Amino acid sequence: MSESVPEGTNPGKFLYARLLWNNLGVHPMRSALSAIAIGLQVFLILFIVGLTSGVLSDWRARAEGVGADIIVQSPNSSIFFSFSSAVMPESLAGDIAKLPGVDEASPVLIVVDTRTLGVVYGIDYASFSGLSSGFTFLSGGPFTQADQAIADDLAADSRKLKVGGIVTLMNHDFRVSGIVVHGKGARFFVPLATAQDIAGAASRVSMIYVRSTGDTEALRAEMVKRFPEYRIRSMAEYLSLMTSSSLPGLTPFIRSFVGLGVVISFLVILLTMYTLVLERRREIGILKALGASRLEICCLIVAEALVLVVLGVVFGLAATYGTTALLHRTSPTLQIQIPADWIARSVFVAIVGALAGAAYPAVRAAGTDPVDALAYE
Predict the structure, then answer these.
(1) How far apart are the C-alpha atoms of 202 and 90, rounded to whole Å?
(2) Is 164 helix (H, G, I), strand (E, B) or coil?
């Protein structure tokens, strides 16, 4: 040992601290890579969950922002509108509008832009605006021609669009007539007849938004009796279904990432701490010669593993929020929300993996014979 123990200091505690920090300082690159590997699994878990949560939250907000109280869809339709096919007659909106208790009924044709996988709404502007207070235009106004489109502010910012500019949707060029505040269902809106022509769905729509005059549940019950062949949901029921569990295969996918995170932490800590025990046998022998117990040696190894976890978690959180901020600037339409409970879960996963990985090196270090260790070079 090249350093003396300060007078009045507990030799064991002094050497514990020295051994703890020397592991990070002697091989800083190894320590940094270990922390980065742990941080990477924290980043992957939080980013996947944050992306999913953000997309679902954004979709719920946009569906609610339309202003409808009831949604009418075909029997086999999905709660994710992009999978809804145009199989409903447009005339059904007129029949629904005649029912007592209906304030407005607006037919919508949903078309997916194959280039961007974005959802485009074909709408009847008058009835769609009547579902709520209407669009809030930041510039321009409603479309007045078949080849015009309305864009929301996030889509316009993402594509650098201006009123009068050209945007390609569904492999067709549209002139932007207006830019509106986001939150009305889709990012782009085109005339219903134009969307029907492009989709080859003459006089057909994907869904019908309905606004009631007051008693939504009574109206919904009446509509179920009148139109039993269609799926009729209240907006409240629809929003309750928009959860991550409704996405097929998502839960197993996230669980796989959590399991992968445990494995990464386990292997990284196992390799790092096992190598540490082999390299620091003399220091461990000195500690045991000074009277350190097996439990104290185990705690020392576990403490060093937890230091790496702390560094890894800090790196992982920084990478997560840094990437999120960058994506918000470069891709405004991509919404990412990091749930607070998942931050705790990702940290817990890292700790569990680290403790499991540190277990064997800690036991091995605790079982070191001080005589053999002091003779080790």
Answers:
(1) 9
(2) coil
Query: Is the distance from CB of 102 to CB of 219 less than 8 angstroms?
Result: yes
Calculate the dihedral angle through the C-alpha atoms of 359, 365, 366, 368, rounding to the nearest 10 degrees.
150
Tokens encoding 22: 């020397």
pTM: 0.74
What are the sequence ranges of the domains in the chain? 11-57+249-375, 70-213
Calpha distance 113→78 (Å, rounded) = 18
CA distances from 27 to 14, 32, 287, 308 (A): 20, 9, 21, 13
CA dihedral 244, 246, 251, 252 (to 10 degrees): -160
Longest dimension (CA), the chain: 95
Q: Tens digit of pLDDT for each residue in 79-121?
A: 666 556 667 999 999 999 999 999 999 999 998 887 887 889 9
DSSP state of 245: G
CA 318/CA 301 separation, integer angstroms: 26
Residue 220: HSE in the Cβ half-sphere, 13 Å Cα cutoff: 19
Angle at 40 between CA 39 and CA 45, to 5 degrees: 100
Render pLDDT for 173-200 as a digit per residue (tens, 0 to 9): 999 999 999 989 889 999 999 999 998 8
Bridge partners of 166?
A: 175
Contact 24/279 with Cβ under 8 angstroms?
Answer: no
CA distance 276 to 278: 5
Write out the two tokens for 151.
């864009």
More confident residue, 229 or 333: 229
CA 223 – CA 69 distance, rounded (Å) = 13
Q: Residue 373 corresponds to which tokens in the numbers above?
A: 């260790």
